Amino acid sequence: MVIHAQCYPCFLRQVLSVCDVLKAGEEEKKAVLVKVMRYLVGAPTDVPPPYLSREVYNIISKEFGVDDPYREIKKASNKMALRLYPELKKRVKESEDSLYEAVKVAIIGNIIDFGASQDFTLEDVDLFDDIPIAINHYPELKERLERAETVLYIGDNAGEVVFDRVLVEELVDMGKRVFFAVRSKPIINDATKEDAEEAGIDEFAEIVDSGSDAPGVVIDRVTERFKHLFRDADVVLSKGQGNFETLDDVPREIFFLLRAKCPVVAEKLGANIGDIIILRGGRVCHGLLL
Amino acid sequence: MVIHAQCYPCFLRQVLSVCDVLKAGEEEKKAVLVKVMRYLVGAPTDVPPPYLSREVYNIISKEFGVDDPYREIKKASNKMALRLYPELKKRVKESEDSLYEAVKVAIIGNIIDFGASQDFTLEDVDLFDDIPIAINHYPELKERLERAETVLYIGDNAGEVVFDRVLVEELVDMGKRVFFAVRSKPIINDATKEDAEEAGIDEFAEIVDSGSDAPGVVIDRVTERFKHLFRDADVVLSKGQGNFETLDDVPREIFFLLRAKCPVVAEKLGANIGDIIILRGGRVCHGLLL
Fold first, then answer.
1. B218-254 confidence digits (pLDDT tens)
2. What is the span of the domain harbouring residue B115?
3. Which of A49, B42, B57, B269 sits in a 20 to 30 Å window from A232, CA-based?
4. From the candidates B1, B11, B33, which should be mutated to test the interface with A, based on the most A CB atoms within 10 A?
5. pTM of this prediction?
6. Is residue B2 domain-resident?
């Protein structure tokens, strides 16, 4: 999907969020906002939002001389999620359809975002049962997975990766070979190799460097390894909004697991903000999904 | 008060609001956002927010060739408020302290803003009794008014002017001579001479052209008439956030009547968003308010 007009105020809001993490002063904030706007004025308007988020984030990193402002928050998110892990596993094991429950757990993890993550508790997990599933292509996903040998799982945020691990384990129990793709460089609170390892995913899946340094997958900049897996994997699972924004128009079948977090994505999906989405998507070619 | 970093995303959000009123398409919105950001990159960062809002609004007007996008909305707001007028008068007349009630009615009017105004009903007026008054300098205001002969009343929005009329009438009943200042040119939904006349204020007060074409009072660009009144009036009443943002630092005593509508103003006032403010303000000189 391409940038929407509503994304521009949101880019600036995101700048302020990073500034808050960096404890920037008022004048520093204004200076970096001006630099970001100077970039946005000349930036393309017909690319997915994460293409610009990447540059915006690089401007902030350079301005403050900090490569990975969310490092501590990511570590704390992973730790907090690992404390919940035994309970999440129990939830899945005790359910009638453990695959479905694991898919839902993975999406629950998608609400972990930014600094608020530390406050996430088991009660939040329980509350999740009441959130509407606006699009539910689980039957199609289940059918595809039953026939699949390989799964490419495109990760999203730190903390969330622990919830992803629950689904990855379930897939491995089903006999699938799982490849877990992460960002190549720190970008906001997105999961890198370090986070996937902290979550213990490397015990069950091969961690794959996607090549992306954006909060999504910039498909023409991915590694060769990712490109092959993306083409050849029997099932591709994509977590979160950023991956959806960059991959919704790519010509292959992808199962998107996410919560709709902004009005633009919610409207595109015909959903409300906060809704759970299990979407069989990807661009239709000649009337058929590849 | 000067622009806060948080104002920048808000400027862009305001652009989108005007675009919605103008029923602009997605590409038109992006084009005007880029123009606005190009302006903001070079704009001063140490002036009150309405100084920049004025330019932002001019860019949009020029882009779409529309001088007064809110004309119809303003007319509708005035009409709607006039329907409530008899009830508002009754409220004031039946109260124990009719001046206090009229002040509160005037502040109730401050919630009328943008397109939402049409939906405003008497129930909304009643709900107002439950809203906290975070700062209440009414006793000081009352004391000042009792001794005053002249009052400069700086208006804010269309629709709201009908609520202002109730307070203006109360002041006239108290024997005061009232001057009602309006914007010189249309800016967003701010009240111009036309709106004050539609509200019938000209029957009770002299309408004064402030010289301002910003959503506030740009003090070094006001008319001579306004300047004299501002200096010499016994009491100055200022309605709304925009006037507060531009006048809070001016060296004379001003009574600000408003609701805190954004986090920046709320924080500055030590209030919560939505709170009612009756503030004796203005810059302190040599330890005393002028």
1. 988 899 999 999 999 999 999 999 999 999 989 899 9
2. 71-289
3. A49
4. B33
5. 0.90
6. no
